[in-house]
Structure to design on (526 residues):
């Protein structure tokens, strides 16, 4: 179901902002009244343009109260686009010219990141350093490149509150259709978007203040949702289905397995793979997307399971040193406060309690949350033979002999200071960390000497993973997020094509990005 700008304005005038402006029948299902745990596709936003080749969308970022499944009687105080949780899906085509009008009705600055799209980082493109103040409306305008059919997403990237805004619900999906979308083996396969998102709200519906443990590990909410629903049931009579898996959580990893079934990967972050491949499990780090085919063996229910994954979380995967990392009432463990805009009123009694929580002196979590079955696939059809694609794309592997520059990016942290960085330098928007030349290829060696995994994300230009600890990747794929395990070295080949300007690279555990794990790359003409 789609929402038009006219309908958006009409519903606003009727005072229905609090329940979701996107579509009343669908919003009721999304907002906790879905008693049967029905799988629901996220809303698609209407293209307001009648001009061929032009897609125009209107987004409004605002605070909203949303009913959540599993939280009966509580309205969660979230941030949403167009009152919808999750945010509306933008469906576009390769070659389209896109205009997005973003209205900021929040009480804080924001902006928009077009995660994974190869568009300009300057002006009205995917500019991570842009600031949209409260009350302002900004235009984003860009073109969808050829050969980019795939699953992308949008979310805020204003440094200072990107983690809080994403965790509170500001995110939506961009689906790009293209010529490869219509290959015979995929043309008639049912296509489902599966957004993985976690939340945490207290008994009043508020999102709790970040604890010190949250800053260390990346915040993980105990409520795991699929398209805004807990443990939904996707019922289908199709023998073969396509799932677009998108991790839109700010800090949670998902280690997914289908009970008794394998999954066939047909696309990664940057679009279709050359040769589909079968996996028994699939790890999605924050920001990552995979598209998979599921070929049902027989009628019945199949659980999608989020399995344990030890990524080095302090207090959960490894012990927390209470004297060094937590501190006591007098020393506070040498901790630094959160970013100023996230501190709130620490002088008040409630604020002092929040400060204690932030410092880790209470509510230390020792057990993981969100594991086990998170969704059910219910196959009601008959057994029959289906054809899986043998080859889809023709991605050319980048040649390491063509690189003009090799760089080492070391992942560094000082945990007692909640400091995360690259090459011992915390983020400074006024400093350029890497200068690269247009129309060149570089090899970046990502060296993670820390005690936890970090998902590494690059804006503007997708890359190919070349090797992990010296072992070459089996086939070239386009990625914009790669997980770098503790003590692991990952080599990526990154081409700088089409666009000049400043953009960023960062850890996509957004608490780590906020604590300094981000750098600036400037692309210039040769």
């Amino acid at each position: 179901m789609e929402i038009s700008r006219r309908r958006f304005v009409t519903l606003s005038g009727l005072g229905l902002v609090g329940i979701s402006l996107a579509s009343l029948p669908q919003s009721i299902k999304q907002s906790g009244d879905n008693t049967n745990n029905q799988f629901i596709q996220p809303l698609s936003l209407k293209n307001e343009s009648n001009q061929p080749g032009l897609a125009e969308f209107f987004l409004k970022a605002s605070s909203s109260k949303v009913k959540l499944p599993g939280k009966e009687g509580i309205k969660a105080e979230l941030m949403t686009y167009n009152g919808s949780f999750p945010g509306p899906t933008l469906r576009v085509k390769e070659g389209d010219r896109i205009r997005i009008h973003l209205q900021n009705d929040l009480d804080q600055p924001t902006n928009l990141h077009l995660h994974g799209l190869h568009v300009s980082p300057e002006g009205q493109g995917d500019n991570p350093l842009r600031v949209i103040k409260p009350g302002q409306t900004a235009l984003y305008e860009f073109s969808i490149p050829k050969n980019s059919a795939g699953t992308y997403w949008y979310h805020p990237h204003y440094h200072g509150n990107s983690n809080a805004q994403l965790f509170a619900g500001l995110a939506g999906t961009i689906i790009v259709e293209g010529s490869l979308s219509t290959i015979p083996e995929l043309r008639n396969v049912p296509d489902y978007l599966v957004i993985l998102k976690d939340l945490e709200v207290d008994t009043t519906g508020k999102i709790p203040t970040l604890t010190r443990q949250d800053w260390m590990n990346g915040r993980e909410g105990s409520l795991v949702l699929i398209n805004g629903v807990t443990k939904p049931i996707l019922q289908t009579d199709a023998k073969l289905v396509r799932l677009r898996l998108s991790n839109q959580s700010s800090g949670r990893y998902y280690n997914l397995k289908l009970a008794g079934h394998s999954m066939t990967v047909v696309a990664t972050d940057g679009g279709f793979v050359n040769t589909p491949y079968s996996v028994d499990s699939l790890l999605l780090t924050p920001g990552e997307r995979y598209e998979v085919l599921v070929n049902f063996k027989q009628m019945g229910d199949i659980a999608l399971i989020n399995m344990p994954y030890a990524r080095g979380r302090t207090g959960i995967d490894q012990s927390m040193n209470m004297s060094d990392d937590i501190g006591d009432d007098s020393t506070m463990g040498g901790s630094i406060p959160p970013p100023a805009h996230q501190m709130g009123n620490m002088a008040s009694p409630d604020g002092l309690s929040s400060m204690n929580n932030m410092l880790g002196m209470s509510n230390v979590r020792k057990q993981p949350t969100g594991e086990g079955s998170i969704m059910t696939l219910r196959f009601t059809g008959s057994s029959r033979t289906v054809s899986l694609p043998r080859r889809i794309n023709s991605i050319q592997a980048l040649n390491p002999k063509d690189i003009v520059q090799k760089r080492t990016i070391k992942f560094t942290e000082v945990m007692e200071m909640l400091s995360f960085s690259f090459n011992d330098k915390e983020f400074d928007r006024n400093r350029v960390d890497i200068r690269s030349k247009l129309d060149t290829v570089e090899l970046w060696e990502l060296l993670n000497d820390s005690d936890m995994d970090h998902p590494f994300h690059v804006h503007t230009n997708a890359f190919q993973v070349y090797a992990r600890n010296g072992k070459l990747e089996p086939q070239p794929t386009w990625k914009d997020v790669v997980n770098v395990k503790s003590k692991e070295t990952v080599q990526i080949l990154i081409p700088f094509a089409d666009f000049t300007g400043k953009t960023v690279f960062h850890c996509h555990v957004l608490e780590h990005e906020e604590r300094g794990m981000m750098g600036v790359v400037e692309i210039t003409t040769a």
Summary: The chain has eight helices and 32 strands. Confidence is low (pLDDT under 50) at residues 1-33, 322-336, 340-361. Residues 400-524 form a domain with the Immunoglobulin-like fold (CATH 2.60.40.420). Residues 349-359 form the longest helix (11 residues).
